[in-house]
Design brief:
Blueprint: H1 11-32, H2 38-46, H3 54-73, H4 85-101, H5 106-115, H6 119-142
Helix pairs in contact: 2-3, 5-6
């Protein structure tokens, strides 16, 4: 069963988080003319074009550095993963394959693409959401893992 820590959830924190993500994605597009899709940014680091790597490294460093900055003000919430390494490796590979076939990831399609009213991003987002729902249902309810 799903357990929600209602004492830690407030609609205000969710709203603030959504606003911050929206502002960041819109600012990135307006200031750099690029979509803030993490898989595309990381892919550009792995196969860089000349003069196109510094901003990608800075972006990824910000993603990694944000929790470090958070630690200066508060404690990070506990991370609990109820899966073994084989499941995590398979899941990571499937997500990587999906981002290649779908030409983007959840941040590129789900956040940035949908906000631009992209039909391609709508199809991609619906596809990965349905695939996620089906996968969880099969693994948790049919296989009982």
């Amino acid at each position: 069963m799903i357990e929600i820590a209602w004492s830690n959830f407030t609609p205000w924190s969710a709203l603030l988080g959504g606003i911050l993500v929206g502002i960041a994605a819109a600012s990135f597009l307006l200031l750099n003319g690029r979509i803030a899709g993490i898989s595309g940014i990381l892919g550009g680091v792995l196969s860089p074009a000349k003069g196109d790597i510094a901003w990608r490294i800075a972006f990824l460093a910000g993603l990694i550095g944000a929790p470090v900055v958070w630690l200066l003000a508060a404690e990070l919430p506990p991370i609990e993963i109820k899966a073994g390494y084989p499941a995590l490796i398979i899941a990571g590979l499937l997500v990587g394959i999906g981002t290649r076939y779908g030409s983007g990831c959840t941040s590129g399609h789900g956040v940035c693409g949908l906000s631009r009213l992209s039909l391609r991003s709508l199809a991609a987002t619906l596809s990965f959401m349905v695939a996620g729902f089906v996968t969880v249902y099969v693994i948790r309810h049919l296989l009982g893992v």
